[in-house]
Amino acid sequence: MVLEIRLSNFFSIKDEVCLDFRAANIKSANARALVDNVFRHDKTDVLKTMVMYGANASGKSNVIKAIRFCNTLVFRSHTHNENTIFNFKPFKFDGYANKPSKYFIRFLSKGIEYEYAFSLTNTQIIAESLHFYPKGRIKEVFTRDERRGKEKSDIYTFGDVIKRPMDVAENTSNKTLYISRASQMDREIPKEIFNYFHNTFILQYLGFGMSAIERLSKENKELLIDALKIADSDIVDVKIRSLKQPGKNFNANLDTLTVTVEEVVQERLQITTFHKRDPLKGFDFLTEESQGTIKLFFIMLTIMDIVKNNKILLIDEIEESLHPKIIEYIFNFFRASKSAQLLCTTHNTKFLDLKKLRKDQIYFVNKKEDASTEVYSLYDYSDFRDTMDLEKAYLQGRFDAVPIVSDSLEMLKGIFNE
């Protein structure tokens, strides 16, 4: 589970922004009624979902993009060579292009809390550290700072939990995260961290392979049919079978994190749907169903895997091509989970409702006058009462994170008549 993420100097993010999944101490009647929106860890309530609102070009997607980049770097950087240029841009103004970008995440894996951080430029890793709390007290795993000297013994300090840590350091260039190299070299705690970022923190829909698609489809058939009925009430059954030919192997592009359903599935699985009009007549799922129905099928596979296994999902513009009722259905899956988490952006103001989300689950993203992105929570507005109309207040610009558009009829006529 994620407890906290901090970012600075990535894309439009200049100064540090923080997404805090540790629930605030809210005692309102609405918050008390939303008991399923949080789960308990130790003595802390943790949020299951967090939603970011903001105008176009405010930087919402840049927050998601920065997290995706940083997480991907953990399980890819051991493949980097001397010519590698990291695929991100620092903030371009005020001299920040020459300053390091920083990432910090506090999270739990197998019941143990970790704090992992690194800083980098476009061309090299500057610093990196990992601490954990094996018995409730902080303990160093390693600390790295490339500015401390040229010798590895100057750059690194270690606790006592990694075997032969200097062997790893000697094989870690300034293009590579130590945690990535140490995992590759079979060190236990780094492998745990690597697997967390690779298998538990899911960066997009369709975050699994072909065998998982087939297994999850069969295990969750009834739930899938129920979900599809929201999009198309005529579907009454779905059948999935493997094709004998091995087909091609397709991998998501980890820089753009995009892949089409058809590319991944069409040569490996045969998915057939059946409709109420004639339950015996099958339809080829990928060619005869709507794109919205196809997308929903694979989204729900991802959601079910994440909810069952208490993973984390990161989604930009969750409402894209999906009906608001389907989005609400997805949120309810997380509410029903033990400790699964969702971080997403959206423009759908339907969910700006304090009977559905707590104040600390709602974040706003705003572009400041210096062109940088700031991120803040509704919880920061202590004067905003639960009885107020949150959606109306947001659309009126109470929280700044809406576009300011001069769209009077006279002004528009003036544009076209010039």
UniProtKB/TrEMBL annotation:
Gene3D superfamilies per the UniProt record, alphabetical:
P-loop containing nucleotide triphosphate hydrolases
Q: Which InterPro entries match?
A: ATPase_AAA_core (IPR003959), P-loop_NTPase (IPR027417)
SUPFAM superfamilies given for it? Answer: P-loop containing nucleoside triphosphate hydrolases
Limits of the ATPase AAA-type core domain: 50-353
Q: Which organism is it from?
A: Belliella pelovolcani
Task: List the taxonomic lineage.
Answer: Bacteria, Pseudomonadati, Bacteroidota, Cytophagia, Cytophagales
Superkingdom, taxonomy of origin:
Bacteria
Task: Give GO MF terms, alphabetically.
Answer: ATP binding; ATP hydrolysis activity
Q: What is this protein called?
A: ATPase AAA-type core domain-containing protein
